[in-house]
Amino acid sequence: MNQKALVGVVGLALVLSGCSMRFEKDGIHVNEPVKVKQTSSKRKIKKVKPVLKKKHKKTEVVKKNSTLWNKQKSQMLNTFMKKWSAKRQQKFTPYVGKTLTLSSGAKYPEVLEKRRFVLGKKTIKIGLSLKGENKYDYNVVAIYNDNFKKHGMHLTYLFTLHRGKGVILIDESKNVNPLVVHQNSDKDLNKEFQRIINLKK
């Protein structure tokens, strides 16, 4: 093999191995292969952690039921009832813890538990609630009665709280079951009762 052929073979081998050579006067010099850093075309994607919204616990708002009725309001109603009944030449006895016996024989507040009450041909849930607590559909906060002994009749006013509003029911029935009541139609009495209820005391 001649010298030119040998140089060609060596050169080809060096190219394949990644080496380079240069021809100088003192001979052929072989350089180390140049290492090329491969740059990845794939960019590193930073994982973004999703921002989780903090779940706020729903705080139950406990609404304190402001009592619509109290002793002070009972006294105010009693004062008004004395004036109101005097104009009508009537004398009402309020329920203050002692049983009210009607001329019919019925007794309050006992009948509120033992009898069925009907208003407008419908049975209603009614009961004594002197502090104005919402225990029934009609919460009785005050009872006033006037017996007409001569006629064997009575006129009993039941002052009630119904869905936050004042409703005065009148019992004129005999000692029967159910007891049928009807709503008071006296505007002055209704207005004063509601006014007392609305007072913030």
UniProtKB/TrEMBL annotation:
DUF4767 domain: residues covered: 67-197
Protein's recorded name: DUF4767 domain-containing protein
Highest taxon in the source lineage: Bacteria
Listed InterPro entries: DUF4767
